[in-house]
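To the team - adenosine-5'-diphosphate complex, inputs and output below.
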Amino acid sequence: IPGRVIFSGIQPTGILHLGNYLGAISNWVKLQNEALPNDDVIFTIVGWHALTLPQNPKELSASRRDMLATLLAFGIDPSKSVVFYQEDNQCHVELSWILSCLTPIGKLNRMTTWKSRLAAKRNANDESEVDESMLNAGLFTYPILQAADILAYRATHVPVGEDQTQHLELSRDLADTFNRTFDPRKRFFPLPSQLITPTKRVLSLKDPSSKMSKSSPDVSSRIMLTDTASQIDRKIRGAVTDSIQGVTYDPENRPGTSNLLSILAACEGVEPQVAAQRYEGKGHGDLKKDVSAALEEMLKGPRGEFERLRNDQEYLARVAREGAEKAKERSQRTMSAVRKMIGL
Ligand code: ADP
Ligand code: NA
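Output:
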């Protein structure tokens, strides 16, 4: 039986926060560890996507290495998964071009991430014109590059958040268009399906009406995966809860308290409702102490491993090189078939 091809990517943003870990990376690790022998599990750090926004080359170069070290430290295992830098495999851009020529511009115009960028620009410049120099063509076409990332491996399953649903639909559309245009058997590209992550949305510690994010200027609103025990402790003690007595799980009315319970539950691998049970007759102080301790317990091993890997750039470079070889081996098979089908 042919296995699944599981594929996902992450931007080279360097050090991640707890939301990234619980919402994305921990799910990747689970998929990797639960994969069947016939499955192929592929993760990439997408440097080409990063270029859609202005980048400082020195920082970008450090961030992509930190991202690789993070993935490895938190459990991505190069002997089980193909892990590589997107920009080490030229197939992505080649396929992206071919798919570009199959994409109606109207479809890209309707992409909500593009529309929200456009709207954000319009608001920023109020009545004046949109500063189109900030809206580069890469930002407009990056859903096509994303489709190419996926289709280059003829991926069948893509674990990404719900914000990516529309982009994944484009990938399916393009797979289907390609099949119907060029493949006599009309099934060369499988239509990739979205593996929706069981929602583990981590909220900001300072404003539990929004998610924990790297874009918040308040660094105490997020736990970084490299935070020390005392940094974790300080941030959790400062987390916004509410003035209701006791600890109950009620995300609607008690988002701050419930967020801490969710974090605790995620660290322990239980449901938040279950974690809540032990706080009968206890208060926020008890909960916070336990959250800090659970986070430290979960993060201390990977944090040490991250530091170790960061100091072994040679090893990281070797993992990246070997990952790229495996990735290329797979995508070159796709590309020779594609080239033949399109007549080039
Ligand atoms: P940020 O919001 O910090 O900029 P990204 O947009 O770079 O994070 O997201 C990288 C990955 O982490 C995505 O898969 C996203 O769904 C996940 N993610 C980001 N923030 C959270 C969060 N607060 N809770 C759960 N998952 C998150
Ligand atoms: Na973001």
